[in-house]
Description:
hypothetical protein PF0899 fold, binds zinc ion, 132 residues, 7 strands, alpha+beta, 23% helix
Amino acid sequence: MHEIGIVRAMAKTVTDYAEANGIDKVAEIVLDIGELSLVIPEYVEELYAPVVQGTFLEDTKLIINIVPGMAVCDNCDDVFNVVEHEGYCPNCGSFDKEVLSGQEFLIREIHVDEAEEGEEETEAAAEEKSEA
Ligand SMILES: [Zn+2]
């Protein structure tokens, strides 16, 4: 189970980002986890609380957004869901494809709980590549 390392790295990235930007409290973290990323969202969710316990992120809510694993068929250009069709094109049966989405694990947004500044978001906080 490699999720623990991923959760720790994610928490550190958010903490570093908050420190660099003078943020004292993060309300929510929104993660994008691709269906094809080999990261299991349930594990991330489960591990998050113990990892952030007693830290700056203890009261921060984690929101996980699952990104569907989509691919385009090299043979017929059909776009299909890789998980649903077990990697094969449902139109022509080819296994040759280019994955379009679903391999990501990234921090999509960091919501800051600060009345005077309102909501702050970041897109480029971090991208964690899972071993493929
Ligand atoms: Zn096809």
